[in-house]
Amino acid sequence: MSHSSGIPVGRDLEQAFGAARTDASIRYLVAEIRDEKVVQVNKGQPTGNLKGDVDHVRSLLQPAKPCYVLLKLETKNDGGFEWMLISYVPDGSPVKERMLYASTRDTVKKSLGSSCFTEDLFASSPGDVTYDACQEAVSKKHYEGPLTQTEIITRMEKSAVIETGTTKEYVHSVAFPLSDEGKAALEKFSKSQLKLVQLKVDTTKETLELATAKAEVTVGSLGSEISASEPRFTFFFYPHSFNDETFNSACMILTLSLSFILLKIPQCSSILALMKHQ
């Protein structure tokens, strides 16, 4: 597990990147760790094509001085231009600096907006920063082999957590409160008065609503209770035996439909807190 250095992104870099996201005259920003924060030290305009711009970036890199290069790509997504974060940490640099840059990289992405950076490139020498290397990093993402359904769902869950950085115009945070009926049903569930509780997302009211509440349900009939077309949070008591002991375990099952966009719902922590009373 990687650990953050605790070094923040400077306000100057946040502002510069926020402006560069929509400014077509900026191709790249160069940032370094100085005075315990990540600051902008250079920037450049497009020269006409990405290959020439990458060549110019490479000429700026020093053999023993780490830096981050925020390179604007020629592709766009819903949030604007896509970016590549180049982490340049040369082998000849001091060990302490190498550790700082490695442990600060994630902070840079989250502070500026993880969803902006669609590609990464790690370089330990100027020769690693080439147009071909950038293209290879892009092709690895866009030309992967077929994914299983589980891998698709996992990727969707990761993409649902959006780090917007300092520019907020593209993504809006919305809370989904749990309805009174849902709270009452979960309270009964926590006291074993209900065997099955299902919650659904009402995107019109932006709430979590009660979908099903039953005092009795069997494992065999559980599948027929779960919607095949809409996401559901299902709370279920699972009776089973192990080593001649009988258990009635409380389970939460999240079922998803690939036709729906996954939502990150802050109230999940409240739901789990109610489960602890069981």
Could you name the key traits of this structure?
single chain; 278 residues; 8 helices; 28% strand; alpha+beta; five-stranded mixed beta sheet; disordered C terminus; four-stranded antiparallel beta sheet
3D architecture notes:
- This protein has helices spanning 11-20, 50-60, 95-112, 131-142, 149-160, 180-190, 219-225, 268-275; strands at residues 28-34, 37-44, 67-77, 80-88, 117-123, 196-202, 207-214, 232-242, 245-255.
- The protein is elongated, with a radius of gyration of 24 Å.
- The strands form two sheets. It has a five-stranded mixed sheet with strand order 2-1-3-4-5, sandwiched between helices.
- The two termini are 32 Å apart.
- The model is unreliable at 167-174 and 259-278 (pLDDT under 50).
- It is of the alpha+beta class and 278 residues long.
Count of helical stretches:
8
Profile the largest sheet.
Answer: 5 strands, mixed
Uncertain stretches of 5 or more adjacent residues:
167-174, 259-278
Instruction: Please tell me the overall pLDDT.
Output: 81
Order of helices and strands: HEEHEEHEHHHEEHEEH
> Cα distance, first to last residue?
32 Å
> What percent strand?
25-35%
Q: What would you call the structural class? A: alpha+beta
